[in-house]
From TrEMBL:
<dbReference type="GO" id="GO:0004869">
    <property type="term" value="F:cysteine-type endopeptidase inhibitor activity"/>
</dbReference>
<dbReference type="InterPro" id="IPR018990">
    <property type="entry name" value="Prot_inh_I42_chagasin"/>
</dbReference>
<keyword id="KW-0732">Signal</keyword>
<dbReference type="Pfam" id="PF09394">
    <property type="entry name" value="Inhibitor_I42"/>
</dbReference>
<dbReference type="InterPro" id="IPR052781">
    <property type="entry name" value="Cys_protease_inhibitor_I42"/>
</dbReference>
<feature type="signal peptide">
    <location>
        <begin position="1"/>
        <end position="19"/>
    </location>
</feature>
<keyword id="KW-0646">Protease inhibitor</keyword>
<feature type="domain" description="Proteinase inhibitor I42 chagasin">
    <location>
        <begin position="25"/>
        <end position="111"/>
    </location>
</feature>
<dbReference type="InterPro" id="IPR036331">
    <property type="entry name" value="Chagasin-like_sf"/>
</dbReference>
<protein>
    <submittedName>
        <fullName>Protease inhibitor I42 family protein</fullName>
    </submittedName>
</protein>
<keyword id="KW-0789">Thiol protease inhibitor</keyword>
C-alpha cells in the first residue's frame, strides 16, 4: 500500500511502511495528504488530537474518503488538506482504527514545518 503526499502540482509517492513524514510549508501554502483506507472493514483514519502537537500552527480540512473503484468494498483513500497557518512546528498523529475498538491498529505521524520561504 502506498500513501501520497501532493505539494502544489508535484506528486511524491511514499511507502506506507514509513511511520513518520515531514512536510515543509510556507504560511498560507496548502498540501494534500492521503492515506489508503477501506471503510468497509470498519477501519478508518482519524486525527488523534491527544497524540498531536502544535495543531495551532496548521489548518486542517478533512476532505473525506475517496473511493478507488466503483464496486462495493473496494479500497480507496482518506484525504486531508493541510495549510500552514503560523510559523512553527506541528506534529499530526493519524490513527487507523475501528470506532468501537480501544486502540488503533496502525498509526502515522506527519511533521509539518511552517516557515517563510
Amino acid at each position: 500500500m502506498k500513501r501520497r503526499l501532493i505539494l502544489a502540482a508535484a506528486a511524491v509517492i511514499i511507502s506506507q511502511a514509513a511511520a513518520a513524514e515531514t512536510l515543509r510549508l510556507a504560511p498560507g501554502e496548502r498540501a494534500r495528504f492521503t492515506l489508503k483506507e477501506n471503510p468497509s472493514t470498519g477501519y478508518v483514519w482519524r486525527i488523534d488530537a491527544a497524540a498531536s502537537a502544535g495543531l495551532d500552527r496548521v489548518a486542517i480540512a478533512d476532505a473525506g474518503h475517496k473511493r478507488g473503484a466503483s464496486m462495493p468494498g473496494a479500497p480507496g483513500e482518506h484525504r486531508w488538506i493541510i495549510c500552514g497557518a503560523h510559523a512553527g512546528r506541528a506534529v499530526i498523529a493519524f490513527a487507523h482504527q475501528r470506532p468501537w475498538e480501544p486502540a488503533p491498529a496502525e498509526t502515522r505521524r506527519l511533521e509539518v514545518l511552517v516557515a517563510p520561504r
